[in-house]
């Protein structure tokens, strides 16, 4: 009976892949006192100066339907933040508030790819992006990043060779979850040139841009904003989740040429019909007053990256390079071919939970992903345990 019900569903829905982290997370939760480093978020709740704006809004009765694109105050706050960050004037008309970075990706995919189309995605990748393409009937086409002495690298020739007459878009996530690969400005210019040559869209996922570890401690990673020109086919997806410890608020934004405004508004109308006003009030405060909290998060992540990198290096058994951005360590372990089994074994012997690399698309198997946006004390404890346990795998 159940299989008949399932068989009658649209295959795009019924065959959507399950998250490759679920099995590990269930196993680790059942194991009790495990340091949980498999999930992509920090260890801090949302700060009070942010959430109090939401409670004030609720108390004031802001509980009704609202602007589909986002309240004007929030769109202006995003525009001011982004104009400052990218050093160019970006009007509020470019920004569309939606329910999370994930929904921003869904909206972007819906704009540019559908049944029979292909979307090129460098891999290892956050699996939700290819899944969003698949749900729309499009095929994700993976281009594996290379991993050598200089860390994770993109092969631009391989990227262009993946373009076919069916290709509609490239999903480019930099700094990357899970690898930490961070494109240089020159690489972004080259990727944009490929997009221009073939008439492709770029879905730019730069949500980790503030977490960047390259020379000179820049304020952000290189962005397509640094290389784009008027008329380029680029849609950015973004989120409040990571910078301001707001993963549970499920709010993000799409940035695109204002010419797309009515279309994007329709997509919001026919999904959530707009984000809650009280949440948007908190988001305004995050943007306007959240820089020192964010600076604290970045400093913490930088310290944690060094602590955990030293421990992994010290094992002498790991294929790994210090990531240039985001807050994940993605490392291979010599002799490990089944990352799910290895992750479970680490739960047993080290009481540390990591995400199996097999969850992150082609090129991921044999690796483990560790989220290090944690206090230095917790990361030091996890690092010690991993240093002792990895040689036993
Ligand atoms: C690369 C990337 N993009 C987008 C998101 C979406 O974040 P959220 O849906 O929490 O806004 C995530 C979350 O982990 C991510 O890693």
Descriptive overview:
With 393 residues, the protein is of the alpha/beta class. The protein has two domains: 9-38 and 292-392, Aspartate Aminotransferase, domain 1; 48-289, Aspartate Aminotransferase, domain 2 (3-Layer(aba) Sandwich). The protein contains 14 helices and 15 strands. Strands 2-10-9-8-7-3-4 form a seven-stranded mixed sheet, with helices on both faces. The protein has a four-stranded antiparallel sheet with strand order 11-12-15-14. Strand 7, helix 9 and strand 8 form a beta-alpha-beta unit. The N and C termini lie far apart (43 Å). 47% of the residues are buried. Bound molecules: pyridoxal-5'-phosphate.
Provide a quick synopsis of the model:
This protein has 2 domains: 131 residues, Alpha-Beta Complex (Aspartate Aminotransferase, domain 1), CATH 3.90.1150.10; 242 residues, Type I PLP-dependent aspartate aminotransferase-like (Major domain) (Aspartate Aminotransferase, domain 2, 3-Layer(aba) Sandwich), CATH 3.40.640. With 393 residues, the protein is α/β, with parallel strands linked by helices.
CATH names the topology of the largest domain as: Aspartate Aminotransferase, domain 2
CATH class of the largest domain: Alpha Beta
Our count of domains comes out at: 2
Strand sequence of the main sheet, in spatial order?
2-10-9-8-7-3-4
Overall geometry: globular
Flag low-confidence runs.
none
- Give a count of the beta strands, DSSP E runs of length 2 or more: 15
Number of helices: 14
- For the CA atoms, what is the radius of gyration? 21 Å
**First and last CA, distance:** 43 Å
| Element-level helix/strand string | HHHEHHEHEHEEEHEHEEEHHHEEHEEEH
Q: Average pLDDT, to the nearest integer?
A: 96
| Ligand list | pyridoxal-5'-phosphate
Enzyme class: transferase
InterPro entries: Aminotransferase_I/II_large (IPR004839), AspAT/PAT-like (IPR050596), PyrdxlP-dep_Trfase (IPR015424), PyrdxlP-dep_Trfase_major (IPR015421), PyrdxlP-dep_Trfase_small (IPR015422)
Protein name: aspartate transaminase
Keywords: Aminotransferase, Pyridoxal phosphate, Transferase
């Amino acid at each position: 009976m159940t299989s008949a019900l399932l068989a009658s569903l649209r295959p795009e829905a019924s065959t959507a892949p399950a998250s490759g982290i679920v099995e590990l997370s269930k196993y680790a939760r059942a194991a009790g006192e495990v340091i949980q480093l498999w999930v992509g978020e920090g260890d801090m709740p949302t700060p009070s100066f942010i959430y109090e704006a939401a409670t004030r809004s609720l108390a004031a009765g802001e509980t009704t339907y609202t602007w589909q694109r986002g309240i004007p105050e929030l769109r202006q706050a995003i525009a001011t933040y982004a104009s400052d960050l990218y050093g160019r004037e970006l009007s509020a008309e470019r920004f569309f508030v939606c329910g999370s970075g994930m929904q921003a990706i869904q909206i972007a995919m819906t704009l540019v790819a559908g049944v029979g189309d292909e979307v090129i995605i460098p891999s290892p990748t956050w699996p939700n992006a290819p899944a969003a393409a698949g749900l729309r009937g499009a095929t994700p086409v993976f281009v594996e990043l290379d991993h050598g002495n200089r860390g994770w690298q993109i092969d631009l020739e391989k990227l262009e060779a993946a373009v076919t007459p069916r290709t509609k878009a490239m999903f480019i996530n930099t700094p990357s979850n899970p690898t930490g690969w961070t494109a240089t400005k020159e690489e972004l210019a080259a990727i944009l040139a490929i997009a221009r040559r073939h008439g492709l869209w770029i879905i730019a996922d730069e949500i980790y841009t503030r977490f960047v570890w390259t020379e000179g401690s820049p304020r952000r990673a290189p962005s397509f904003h640094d290389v784009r020109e008027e008329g380029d086919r680029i849609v950015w997806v973004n989120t409040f989740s990571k910078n301001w410890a707001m993963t549970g608020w499920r709010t993000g934004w799409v940035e695109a040429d204002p010419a797309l405004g009515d279309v994007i508004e329709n997509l919001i109308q026919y999904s959530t019909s707009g984000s809650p006003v009280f949440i948007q009030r908190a988001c305004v405060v995050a943007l306007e007053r959240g820089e020192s909290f964010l600076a604290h998060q970045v400093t913490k992540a930088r310290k944690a990256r060094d602590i955990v990198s030293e421990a992994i290096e010290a094992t002498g058994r790991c294929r790994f390079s210090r990531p240039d951005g985001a807050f994940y360590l993605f490392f291979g372990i010599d002799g490990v071919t089944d990352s799910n089994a290895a992750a479970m074994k680490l739960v047993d012997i080290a009481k540390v939970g990591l995400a199996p690399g097999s969850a992150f698309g082609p090129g991921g198997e044999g690796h483990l992903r560790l989220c290090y946006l944690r206090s230095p004390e917790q990361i030091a404890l996890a690092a010690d345990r991993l240093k002792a346990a990895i040689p036993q795998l």
